[in-house]
Amino acid sequence: MSQNLATVSQRALLPERIASLINALSSGVYEREHTIKMCLLAALAGESIFLLGPPGIAKSYIAKRLIEAFDNSQFFEYLMTRFSTPEEVFGPLSIQALKDEGKYVRLTDGYLPNADVVFLDEIWKAGPAILNTLLTVVNERTFKNGEHVYPVPMRLLVTASNELPEPDSGLDALYDRMLLRVFVNRIQEKKNFKLMLTEPSQDEATVADKLKISHQEYQHWQTIIPTLDLPDAIFEKLYTLKQRVENAGSEQSQFDPSELYVSDRRWKKAVRLLKAAAFFNGRDEVAPLDLLLLEDCLWHSPESRDVVQTVMQAFAKEVLFDQQEVLALLDDVKVALEEIEQDTAEALTYRQDAATAGLTRKAAIDVSQSPRFTVNQSRDLVRFVLLRANPSVSEQEKGDSRWVYLDAADIEKKLKTGSTDLYGYVNKNNHLCRLTLEWDAQHALVIKDIANRPVPMALVGVNDPSESQLADWKQQTDHALEQLQHAQFLIRRARSQLNAGLPHLFAQPDLLEIASASLVDVEHEVKTQIDNLERQVNRLARLDEFFSGASHAEC
What we know:
Elements: H1 2-26, H2 33-45, E1 48-52, H3 59-66, E2 75-79, H4 86-90, H5 95-101, E3 117-121, H6 128-140, E4 142-145, E5 148-151, E6 156-161, H7 172-176, E7 180-183, H8 190-198, H9 215-224, H10 232-251, H11 264-280, H12 302-318, H13 323-348, E8 373-375, E9 378-386, E10 403-407, H14 408-414, E11 419-426, E12 433-439, E13 445-448, E14 454-459, H15 467-501, H16 509-541, H17 543-547
Parallel strand pairs: 1-6, 1-7, 2-3, 3-6
Antiparallel strand pairs: 4-5, 8-9, 9-10, 9-14, 10-11, 11-12, 12-13, 13-14
Helix pairs in contact: 1-2, 2-11, 10-12, 12-16, 13-15, 13-16, 15-16
Pfam families: AAA_lid_8, bpMoxR, LARA_dom
Protein name: AAA family ATPase
Domain AAA+ ATPase: 45-189
């Protein structure tokens, strides 16, 4: 029991420990923190990393620092040339073994097969003999020495170059196994450039013993990482990203689309990397923010890197937290409500008889069948229901106007053709407002709102909806309300996921900022739209009340 509690406690403290380790490894190194983070993550996930960049920008310096992350570990580095031999990388042949036993056995102490962290500079200059053996080491983490195959303790392979492998050079298989690819540039910020010039160099990082990773810990973590969950929702986002990268490759004309080809093997290794990131961030499953790490896994060249960065930025803005889905859902609700309003307007709007329209000798409107209402001592009023949401039909009354009361005799007398100003009451207010009514081109009765937009009107007692119509519209508005509630749920879940995922130990700060800012924008849009749409939904849902003769017979 106490052992389980200790394990839980260690897991809870692991993110803080890894964060402290990153800080220690990054101390005294300027504008290289992301590179160090990616190197450490590659080591923790048991993957390899390729650093692309010009000479003299501390690529080997970074790799050397990573050895300090591990307790009792060995470091091996080598600068490849066209003339490099396997003996210089994997160890010289044992003359004694050859003489005594007639066997080719290498003396591997101090060479790559016995190293925990390996740095190979100018990797693509190596010859086939080295690269073929290296491919086996990377694939299987084993090294064949004579008749025996030995496990290789290598936790991290860092390769570097200022160029990419030549096409058709036979190096694609090895390059494909460099899961993480990081572009390392010269120092850009002025203050950092000055510090680099003036501050004493720190050849090695100072890492406290309590932060260093032991062999037992490392091996234990490697057994846990594959067991972490990749939720279906995260897989769907990952698959969307895959499709976007592939589509971007087919849409680009300036370079070969194959530069954005990502093998199935790389995707599988990338998922393990995501699980490692989740584990060291203190989670039991991959979360949305972990997907941002794929930016450093999907490019092959500087040109394709630019495309991947663009795709990732759009992905962070639109997909990572379902932003696009939420906005599309709101658009669907808006369209649905507009269609319901259009249906109600077509079904209920008071219209002139086409045969008598425009004839001034007869009343343009017949209110004889409409019930009468009394408002503020004014009697013989008829009520018109407004069939579309509006900001108000009177400057004196702010807010959505749902119905108006007009004098029956006045409207029959004055409402002939063209635009007519009448006085009436709006909603439940008991003071007179000047209102503008007219017949539109389709002979429908409309009232102008304060933005001078026509709002169709229905005459209570004449254009009342049937029960089947009300039931149908209510079903549609209920569905629209459910969609709004789902949009609210998605945005609350996204905010919860973002908060739970921060701080993230490995993700690029720029992408985190893009994702966070996008979510804030969508949250604001959702709040604004939902406030408007909920009013519209409620308006349509209460349509039967607006036509009820008892709802406001007197005030």
